[in-house]
Amino acid sequence: MKHLSALADEHYLKSLMKYKGMLRFKKLVEMSRQNEVKAVKHWKECLKRKAVIQWKDNVKEIQLQKEKMADNMFQYLLIKRCFRNWTLVKNHVEILEGRAKRYFNRNLKNKIFVTWREWAKQEKIDNVEKERRAREHCVWSLKSKYFHKWKRHPEELEKEKAREKRRKEMRLTVAALFTGL
What pLDDT does residue 39 have? Predict the structure, then answer.
């Protein structure tokens, strides 16, 4: 019985160790492993975060330097272009003045030709009107003249008869004078 009791005690200790001690110990070991994995993972994430933040700051600094260099280059090119354009202003002004003169002369010529054409057209219209008035006046004058002559026609006939009579008398007088010689 001692032997069975010893076996039972041994079995009891084994089962105690197995179920009460080892399982809990295994759980603790497993939990510590999981915690260690989590800690390593967390440490790696923190390390990554620090590296990424440092990289981001470094990239931002490089980007700011590049932007500053680009701004300086832009300012330099802008000033250079302004000075170059400033030297070309005289030529540009001369070109613009030439264009302005040509534009002014072309517009002036166009205005002169348009005015001249309008004046010539108006003169033609005025000449046609003057010719019409002259024809009307000529017709009126001829009518007036002929009506006046028609009115004086009986007097003229009498005068003509008197002249004819006088011519006859003069002929007779001249013929008498010539026959008397």
Answer: 95
